[in-house]
Structure formats: C-alpha cells, structure tokens
Amino acid sequence: MVSEAPPFWWMKAGWQAWALSPFSFVYGRIAGRRMARTRRAQVPVPVICVGNFTVGGAGKTPTAIALARAAKMKGLKPGFLTRGYGGSLDVTTTVDPAHHRADAVGDEALLLAREAPTVISRGRVEGAHRLVAEGAELIIMDDGFQSARLELDFALVVIDTRRGIGNGHLVPGGPVRAPIGEQIRQLSAILRVGDGDAADRLVRQAARAGKQIHVATLRPRDGQSLAGRNVFAFTGIADPEKFYRTVKSVGGLVAGVRSFPDHHFFTEDEMLSLLEDARKEGLTLVTTAKDAARLAGRHGPAEELLRSVTVIEVDMAFDDHQAPAKIIDAAFDRFRLRRLRKPI
C-alpha cells in the first residue's frame, strides 16, 4: 500500500510543520543543491518534463497525455518515461497494457501506455535510452522535475489552483519537493489548472521571473453524463475532493463517498464492501480511470467491481488550444540549440 500524505500538509502551517522545520531545512538544502549542481545526462531527442512543485497529484498524467496527442498530430512519435510509481517492477520495462497489471507497473503507466509507448524505469537515463532505441522522437517525462538526472528541453510544472503548494513547507513538514526559488529558476512554464486562487502568489512570482504561464482545466470527456443518478463515488488519488467535484459537474447526485490513499490497491474486503453498500442503497458506483486501472486484470471481487462501476475519464483542456503544440515547438528549438552547443 502506498502511504498517504499527512493532512496537515494541505492546511495552514501549524505546530506539526514548524516542529519539522529543522528537517525540512536539511531536506531543502540537499534537494536544492541536487537540482542546481548535478550534471545531467543528455539523450539524442527532445525531453519535455511534466512535473509539479509538490508531492501528490496536480494533473501531470492528463497533461502528459495532452502533449503526446499534440505530438502525434504533428506527425511525431512520442514516448512516455515514468518511474512506475506504485508498481513492484524495479527493472526498466516497456509497458504492455494488454499484459501488465498496475501492481507491477503502476496505474499511471497503464494510462499512458494507452496513448504512446511507455517505459518505466527507476533510472531515468536508462529509461530514456530505451525509448530512443524503440524509436521515440520526443520523450515526455511524467514527473521527475526535481530528480536532476536528464537534461530537459522544456519543464512544464503543473499546479492545482485550489490546493496550491499546501502549507508551503518543504518535506517532511509540508508537500514542497525542493526550494521554490530553485524550482522556478529551472522551470520553463507553469500550467495553472482550475479556477481557485491558492496558486496566485506563486504564479505571479514565476511571471515576474519571466516564465510562461499556461491555463487549463480538467474536463470530463464528452458523453459522460450522470444526470439525476444517485451515485457512490470512491477513489484512491491524491486529491479525492477534485474527483467528487467532477462527479457533480456531470450531474451525479453524490449520496456517498469513500476515499483511499493515493495509488491504493483495494483489498477484497474493501471491494466487497463497496459493492454491498452501493447495492443496498441502490446507488451507481463511480470512480476514476486510475482507480479502474488498478482493478483491471484482477479476478474475483475486482472483476465484479470493474463490471459494476462507471469510470469518469477526464482530459486536460488548455485555454489556448495551440499551447501543447507551442510547448513541443519550444522543446525542439531548445534541443537544436543543445545539439549545437554540445554534440551528443
């Protein structure tokens, strides 16, 4: 089971965050130095990284998928590189969605592999070279902005405007992965997702530093209506409230919810309980594509739950429909300069 982020990370900084501040200071020094000083490996294709400032979800995976679709529209062959978070495989692996299960490669890798060739690798450099060998013309990294392993040609950092950066403290006192100043220095653009104001200060800081600001919204796919239906929503993602808002946006009358830790693998008892509770109250079960990916390929209650559940798929919709193509063009421009400056 994947551990759950402490709730105090997403509240105004209290005694827990301040008590952990000495550890956050040390963590920040190490993370910042690694980002600033580590020598990065280069690969012979452009690399776009989709990251975020904090631990937890902000919409990286749907953003990466939107970029891959834009790349394919341009006639390119993109490939995804991810760690396979939540999966058990610790060797570099090309994901086969018809063969692999989420407990081996992670739920996000399965979603990515539906769109383009996907490699999971604990070593990002090795994984990038695997993608190049398999013919990728553009690498899109889902996460890894702070890891400082690969030379990036474009770093798009996604921020949820309702959660922002939580209490603003670095791990372990808060969700921030590295000093904000260093992260802003190294990012190429921010993707502001949603209609909240929790990210406004950070977005202004990035804009003053001359960084691009893009705006987008997570939107349910067309044809997904729950109008007038009483539903029981369950999910194991970093921000379950975001999903419950999505269910309401497509007309679902939320009669019950159950939240689990991010990337959670449901036990048989949990799955049977969900089925029984929904059946008893006459409710429609609804969940996310990531949760459905963790059910796929399993037997017993998982099969029954997957048959019974309505899956709400979402896409990242950029306000500027040309923004993904512009990001790809900028990555290729920077890649060409990199090749001229230092041949690979």
From TrEMBL:
<keyword id="KW-0808">Transferase</keyword>
<keyword id="KW-0067">ATP-binding</keyword>
<keyword id="KW-0441">Lipid A biosynthesis</keyword>
<dbReference type="GO" id="GO:0009029">
    <property type="term" value="F:lipid-A 4'-kinase activity"/>
</dbReference>
<dbReference type="InterPro" id="IPR027417">
    <property type="entry name" value="P-loop_NTPase"/>
</dbReference>
<dbReference type="GO" id="GO:0005886">
    <property type="term" value="C:plasma membrane"/>
</dbReference>
<protein>
    <recommendedName>
        <fullName>Tetraacyldisaccharide 4'-kinase</fullName>
        <ecNumber>2.7.1.130</ecNumber>
    </recommendedName>
</protein>
<feature type="binding site">
    <location>
        <begin position="54"/>
        <end position="61"/>
    </location>
    <ligand>
        <name>ATP</name>
    </ligand>
</feature>
<dbReference type="InterPro" id="IPR003758">
    <property type="entry name" value="LpxK"/>
</dbReference>
<dbReference type="GO" id="GO:0009244">
    <property type="term" value="P:lipopolysaccharide core region biosynthetic process"/>
</dbReference>
<feature type="transmembrane region" description="Helical">
    <location>
        <begin position="15"/>
        <end position="32"/>
    </location>
</feature>
<dbReference type="GO" id="GO:0005524">
    <property type="term" value="F:ATP binding"/>
</dbReference>
<keyword id="KW-0443">Lipid metabolism</keyword>
<keyword id="KW-1133">Transmembrane helix</keyword>
<keyword id="KW-0812">Transmembrane</keyword>
<dbReference type="Pfam" id="PF02606">
    <property type="entry name" value="LpxK"/>
</dbReference>
<keyword id="KW-0472">Membrane</keyword>
<comment type="similarity">
    <text>Belongs to the LpxK family.</text>
</comment>
<keyword id="KW-0418">Kinase</keyword>
<comment type="function">
    <text>Transfers the gamma-phosphate of ATP to the 4'-position of a tetraacyldisaccharide 1-phosphate intermediate (termed DS-1-P) to form tetraacyldisaccharide 1,4'-bis-phosphate (lipid IVA).</text>
</comment>
<keyword id="KW-0547">Nucleotide-binding</keyword>
<keyword id="KW-0444">Lipid biosynthesis</keyword>
<dbReference type="GO" id="GO:0009245">
    <property type="term" value="P:lipid A biosynthetic process"/>
</dbReference>
<comment type="pathway">
    <text>Glycolipid biosynthesis; lipid IV(A) biosynthesis; lipid IV(A) from (3R)-3-hydroxytetradecanoyl-[acyl-carrier-protein] and UDP-N-acetyl-alpha-D-glucosamine: step 6/6.</text>
</comment>
